[in-house]
Structure prediction request, 253 residues.
Amino acid sequence: MSDSVSDSPKLTRRPQWAALEDHRAEWHAHLRDLFASDSGRAERYVVRVGDLRIDYSKNLVTDETLALLQELATATDVFGLRDAMFRGEKINITEDRAVLHTALRAPAGAVIEVDGENVVPKVHAVLDQMSDFARRVRSGEWTGHTGKRIRNVVNIGIGGSDLGPAMAYEALRAYTDRSLTFRFVSNVDGADLHEAVRDLDPAETLFIVASKTFTTIETITNATSARTWLLKGLGGDEKAVARHFTTRRSVCP
Prediction:
């Protein structure tokens, strides 16, 4: 699978891509015209998956657009790659690894094999550990170095390691414990971290360092600066770090 992907023509050189470009160049319709000419557009251009309803009727697409996109997807074997991903094959050709978003979402009894091993049990073991740690922080069972309860959580990451957690927080904000403060740091500019922690008590602050490789310069720089801030506020005791820092390995394709 990896060889066929790496040897395939560049996406933008394919005739199906050129057909899409021609289609866009010839486009003159306004969105209001599309609705006026198709009374069923609001219902036809909708996808339902379980409780999720995706309405794309207000995008500049027509049946012709969708047909051309389908042709491009077929030509680039999107469906084959999708099936290979679910089988646990190593479709990430730049890192020669499997793309395991599917394992993160799979029920405990599912089987997703990578190199002959079912990875689902290990994934759920880690998810259980994460859930237990979050419960301990929320309940006050997990305390900071001085014994104070954690009241501030700062996520340090960049790209998906920042946008993903921030999106989940914003989406679920209405259900959060309002006694806890959540902040997100991604910019390597020191002002970003400074603003995030300027009114926080180090004794009540937990940092989550999120990364896929833990080699990203922005994340490591911010994590190092946060460690310096913490130790300065807690008298320089190195033992404090273990009670105020935790890591989360991001999973990216």
Remarks:
- The longest helix spans residues 120-139.
- The first strand starts at residue 46 and ends at 49.
- The chain is about 45% helix and 15% strand.
